[in-house]
Amino acid sequence: MADKGKSKVVDEDPRSNSRSSKGKPKEVWEDDAAAAALGHRRCDRSLFLGVLQEQDDLGSEVLAPDNQNVPSNAGTNTDPCLPARQSSSASSRSALESYVEQHTQPKVDVENLSAQSSSSTSSSSVKKFAEIVAIQESCMHALIDPDQELALRLWNQSLEDMKNYYAPDVEKALSGEHQPTTNAPGNGGISVFSQIQDSSGGLGNIHNSGRVVSIEVDSLLEQIKHPVDHHMRLIYIKGHIPAISVDPIGSRFILKKLDTATTGEIIMLYNEIMPHIHTLIINVFANSVIHKLLDYGPAVYTRKLVDNLMGHVLDLSLQLYGCRVIQKAFEVADTDQKIEMAKELGSNLLKCVCDQHANHAIQKCIEFVPPHHIQFVYRSLRGKVKMLSSHTFGCHVIQKALEFCKDPQMKHALVTEILESINELSVDPYGNYVVQYIVEHGDPRERQIIVMKFDGRVMQMSHQKHSSNVIEKCLIHGSYMDRKRIIVEILCAAGGTTADHLLGMMVHEYANFVIQRMLEVAREWQVDVIVNLVRRHEAMLAKYPHGRHVIAQVEKVVNARAGLPGSVVPAPPQFP
User: Fold this and answer.
1) Nearest to 107 by CA among 149, 58, 63, 151
2) Do residues 432 and 468 make contact, with C-beta atoms less than 8 angstroms apart?
3) How far is CA 194 from CA 289, 308, 315, 423, 548, in A?
4) How far apart are CA 204 and CA 199, in angstroms?
5) Mean of pLDDT over the chain
6) How buried is residue 478: exposed, middle or buried, by Cβ count under 10 Å (0-12/13-18/19+)?
7) Which has the minimum average pLDDT: 59-73, 479-493, 507-521?
8) 10: buried, middle or exposed (CB in 10 Å: 19+, 13-18, 0-12)?
9) DSSP labels, 433-458
10) Confidence of residue 361 (pLDDT cuts 50, 70, 90)
11) How many angstroms from the chain centroid is the CA of residue 98?
12) How far apart, in whole angstroms, are the C-alpha atoms of residue 282 and residue 388?
């Protein structure tokens, strides 16, 4: 068994017999490689010596495949079996192998050999190997996929489905078609996002363990901008969520994919965003991602995110982008968290009410926190209603407080402060909106008080930009007696002897709207007075743009009486 793999050569040369101590044929064992080099021919001594002698005759003219001259054997015995020329059988075998290697085994170019091999066999082997690697890759990615529901569903379907999802390009890459994409689930390391904030509050470089990972992020953003297919999902940018969310293209991608994201992907977003919440929340693009994420998160993760905001609610509310997330937090947070956030805002309530950003957070606080938990907010507003109603942003907070205040005594106290300054607020650029709100949503008694306070001032208020809106609201929402009081004062402003003041109102840039509203809500005889006046002076009114608006409104009312289409039906009169 020790001689297995070698060919047996019998030495029948008389010279070897005469020199053999025992007179027996000498056996020489050759490697199978030598036999293969000789074309698998019978490797007996005579044949081998013939080949050897043929090569010796060529001499220096024979070149090896590597362009090296064949060493000359002239003057030496070419018989490797002669003991006089070689000291041992081992040295004879070594010389034979060296000669065979030089003359019968040229250096092989591996690439050329691979190219010359059977294409069908090679292609089949490569495909089989690629398939095995693809299956291994898909299984590994499935194990680390945070969306285990999806991974299990693909596993139950088939290995082919799982391979096509987790490792779609592995087979092609191993076959030499193209390089695998880097956006497959699990590909790439999970980077540690860190934002270096400069003195201006901007975002600095993005680092991964101290090294810039902008190349990876840029690659992902390029794939997002020019996707190979339409199946790119949030899981593909795992480990880079914070960096992607601060990019305009990346943030839009996340916002779009959130609509179809799985539970695992949403949890992945929460886990990557929460460590950097205070930096991302004030970013122009990332704050939109956080704002929308709060709509999709499981309750436990939503609570964790809101908990991370505690202690910073006031500062974030005063910031342009942070206030948007704070508003959303008031909508989705648990009640105890809402109360805690309201207390933080209450520590500097007036500053928030008058701030262009924080006033929106106060409005959401009033709207979504149970009223009995924020009585301190309403108490802080008392005594300052007139001032806040005339403020650019405070007027919105006052209206929201009147809408959601459930304590009758507290609400009455707020309204009383407004009624005491009704004439001043009615002509104020911002206070008039508070007065309009009370006229539209207040009690009939409150509307009656307002109209009575306007006695003798209706004509003047009708010609003023802001107060004319209040008069219109009184005509629309007032009772019959409220309307009658206003209309009679307008019609009889000149003592009933002339209608010039009415013509003046019809061509005025603000008062003409009061006349048009009167045509919609007045009694029939009151409408006739206006219609007849317009008919008599139609030519003159047509010269003015606002006069033409009144003529058009009169035509609609007249057509409505005749039952013609495209007309305005006057409001039915209300009786006390």
Assistant:
1) 63
2) no
3) 18, 17, 21, 57, 64
4) 10
5) 77
6) buried
7) 59-73
8) exposed
9) HHHHHHHHHS-HHHHHHHHHHTTT-H
10) very high
11) 69
12) 28
Compute the distance between CA of residue 71 and CA of residue 24 in angstroms, rounded to an integer. Answer: 33
Spatial contact of 383 and 349, defined as CB atoms under 8 Å apart: no
Tell me which DSSP letter residue 117 carries. Answer: S
With cut-offs at 50, 70 and 90, classify the pLDDT of residue 467: very high
User: Is 544:493 a contact under the CB 8 Å cutoff?
Assistant: no
Element at 273 (helix H, strand E): helix 263-273
Instruction: Give backbone dihedrals phi and psi of 185, rounded to 5 degrees, phi first.
Output: -60, 125
Residue 182: count of CB within 10 angstroms of its CB: 13
Q: In the structure encoding, which two tokens stand for residue 430, read together?
A: 């911002």
Question: Taking the C-alpha atoms of 545, 549, 552 and 558 in order, what is their torsion angle to the nearest 10 degrees?
Answer: -140
Contact 368, 406 (CB under 8 A): no
Supply 131's token pair. Answer: 């398939």
Does residue 379 surpass a pLDDT of 90? yes
Structure tokens at 321: 């982008």
pLDDT tens track for 223-257: 888 877 667 889 989 999 999 999 999 999 999 99
Q: Which two structure tokens, joined as six digits, stand for 514? A: 């009061």
CA terminus-to-terminus distance, the chain: 125
> Which of 106-144 are b and which e, b meaning 16 or more Cβ less than 10 Å from the residue's Cβ?
eeeeeeeeeeeeeeeeeeeeeeeebbeebbebbbebbee
Name the nearest CA neighbour of 135 among 173, 166, 180, 157: 166
Round the CA-based radius of gyration of the chain to a whole number and report it: 48
- Cα separation values, 280 from 42, 248, 333, 513, 547, Å: 82, 13, 19, 48, 55
pLDDT score for 197: 40
| Per-residue pLDDT band at 219 (split at 50, 70, 90) | confident
Q: Which two tokens stand for residue 203?
A: 């975002």
Instruction: Say yes or no to pLDDT of 536 above 70.
Output: yes
Q: Is the pTM of this model over 0.70?
A: no
pLDDT of residue 134 exceeding 70: yes
- Residue 304: the pLDDT is 96
Predicted local confidence at residue 345, as pLDDT: 96
Q: What is the pLDDT of residues 418-456, one digit of tens each?
A: 999 999 999 999 999 999 999 999 999 999 999 999 999
What are the structure tokens assigned to 182, written together?
């880097």
For residue 4, give both structure tokens: 């297995």
Q: Which tokens hold the place of 35?
A: 């036999």
Q: Give residue-wise pLDDT tens across range 329-354.
A: 999 999 999 999 999 999 999 999 99
What are the angstrom distances between the C-alpha of 17 and each of 89, 91, 136?
A: 15, 19, 64
For the chain, count helices (H), then strands (E).
36, 5
Q: Which of 436, 447, 526, 509 is nearest to 479 (CA)?
A: 447
Residues 6+ apart with CB under 8 A from 438: 402, 415, 418, 419, 446, 447, 450
**How far is Cα 137 from Cα 379, in angstroms, rounded to an integer?**
64
CB-based contact 308:342 (threshold 8 Å): no
Name the token pair of 276: 């950097």
- Residue appearing with tokens 């003409």: 512
Sign of CA dihedral 475, 480, 481, 485: positive
